[in-house]
Amino acid sequence: MPLDLTFRKEAEELVKEQMASYDPSHDWLHVDRVRRQALKIAREESSQGKTIDVELVELAALFHDIGDAKFHKEGQPTGREIVMAFLSKHSYQKAEDVAKIVENVSFRKELAGVKNEWAENSIELHIVQDADKLDAIGAFGIMRCAAYSGYKNRPLYDPEEKAQLNMTYEQYQAQTKANAGCAISHFHEKLFRLKDMMKTPSAIKMAQKRHDRMVLFVQQIEEEFSMDE
């Protein structure tokens, strides 16, 4: 079932308030794209006979970046706490399910490699994860990578830097803490990996074209830097 219009409006206002202090790569417009992408995947997967809680998908997609670890400051409420407070106020019965998706949706969580039966089998989690990954690659992914690098004052391209291929969770955490790495290295370290991390058949089909756009973009960056044009 679709969300009640008043409930949806209040949820959107909460997200806009939370995203107001984030950079353009994690703003309300990013969240709205992920929400629309998640609903598209849900429709396509439903057409293949899968049973999907579309209401849960939409709410989890809306809230997926609340309390993002990249922006969370010590002493602030966690994403779970903010989401649960809002949904409890509205007596929403599936609040715990929404919060679990928000807690588990990120690339960082997947990289940590913590396995549990719920995360392995929740189609709603997989849809929101795939929608978020799709917005991290392709043309929007390129712009978002540049925007976040600017926000963190990281170089766009450093030819002396060697990307950490097959980066582990520990390496990812250390790099984040040190605010290290350039934008182009981020393609090799994370963005080029996302195509093969998609979980739903719908997203797997969508990802290849976006992946190819990024590969071409990075090739063009290297050509321009080397003056080989």
Automatic annotation (TrEMBL):
Residues 27-137 form the HD domain. It comes from the Eukaryota. SMART domains: HDc (SM00471). This is HD domain-containing protein. PROSITE patterns: HD.
